[in-house]
Amino acid sequence: MFNHHDIARDAFMLHGPLAHCGYDWWWHSFTAQDAETGEDKAFFIEFFVCNPALKEDVPVLGQLPANREAGKRPSYLMVKAGAWGKDHCQLHRFFAWKDVKLHGDAPYRIEAADCLAGETFLEGSVSVTAEDAAAHPEWMCGAGSISWKLTVDKQIAFNVGYGASKPLREAEAFAMYWHAEGMKSAYSGEIIYNGRCYTVTPEKSWGYADKNWGRDFTSPWVWLSSNCLMSRKTGQTLKNSAFDIGGGRPKIYFVPLDRRLLGAFCYEGREYDFNFSKLHLMVKTQFSFEEQEETVRWQVRQENIRAVMETEVFCRKEDMLLVNYEAPDGSKRHNRLWNGGNGWGTVRLYEKKDGRLIPVDEIEATHIGCEYGEYDRETEER
């Protein structure tokens, strides 16, 4: 059963070797409504920490030429926040570790200046001028301002099971770990984005909260998720449902596996699990990504011994970001990592019976969080 909450997996993970070469992040994405027009707007907030054992009195930015020349690896808390849509933007604010207050055990709590995150709350602000963004390419962000005060109710989990269990975490077996404590989450509160007010309400937030940590990222990098779902079978909104797909090419003990994804669909409480690490499920996965003139497109087919899930997602390129991260070793190998929150598409669910596929439902999905990227060929070969 993957809908198993475990806030211990949301705890701070950068101990031992990962403290010297590791990252850990808490990600939140959701939809708000313009306080004046009622129009939907998708936002994201992330607290990203890197290499605490390498701390200095100032944030150590891995893309700063002087740090690259000196062989310094990054070390900081980065608060990343922004919006998707035609005015999409990612904004970054960096803190030295000496300015961070961290309660690393569950339930976690991380704080720096007015930025605060925990299991049930988010507060903070980021403001970057156009002049500063141009003068500091090592910040890897655009210009703008955003502030927020939110509560979080994580309702459906995607727990990947043994793959991120304590023994495998302590062994640091995988290069990248994942836990979605809230693949369906309800947010409430307020956002101020570039001077405009947005209201966040639980029933229209269609929120998502997860966590990644490890020593490196993955290539390809895939993520698709939504809980704004409607059944074409009944014409009704699916109120106790969510799907989540993620992964790409996992590495175990530095050895890359074939292209594989973790996937799950909670369909009105019924669980369809496509987790390749659960060997008894005999999961098979096929996926592709296509960059078209105005849109991008994902196609994923996942199969286990009992069911099949076929997912097709689109997102407008003008609504998306090329999201920026640097790895704990200071490299920036992802330079075309598409990231969006306004995707739409369909999910088709089937169950297997007597060698046949029996349709369960065809589901219309909107407000899809979506991501795809591959390492630059030059940096991958280094």
Description:
By secondary structure, this protein is mainly beta. It has one domain: AttH-like domain (AttH-like fold). The chain contains four helices and 25 strands. The strands form three sheets. Strands 1, 2, 3, 4, 5, 6, 7, 8, 9, 10, 11 and 12 form a twelve-stranded antiparallel sheet that branches. Strands 13, 14, 15, 18, 19, 20, 21, 22, 23, 24 and 25 form an eleven-stranded antiparallel sheet that branches. A two-stranded antiparallel ribbon has the order 16-17. It is globular, with a radius of gyration of 20 Å.
Spell out the blueprint of helices and strands.
Layout: E1 23-34, E2 40-50, H1 65-70, E3 76-83, E4 89-95, E5 101-103, E6 109-112, E7 115-118, E8 121-128, H2 130-135, E9 144-158, H3 166-171, E10 176-193, E11 196-200, E12 207-214, E13 221-226, E14 228-231, E15 242-248, E16 251-252, E17 255-256, E18 260-267, E19 270-275, E20 284-291, E21 295-303, E22 307-316, E23 321-322, E24 338-353, E25 356-373, H4 377-381
Task: Provide a short characterization of the protein structure.
By secondary structure, this protein is mainly beta.
Keywords:
disordered C terminus; single chain; 4 helices; AttH-like fold; 11-stranded antiparallel β-sheet; 6% helix; mainly beta; 12-stranded antiparallel β-sheet; 382 residues
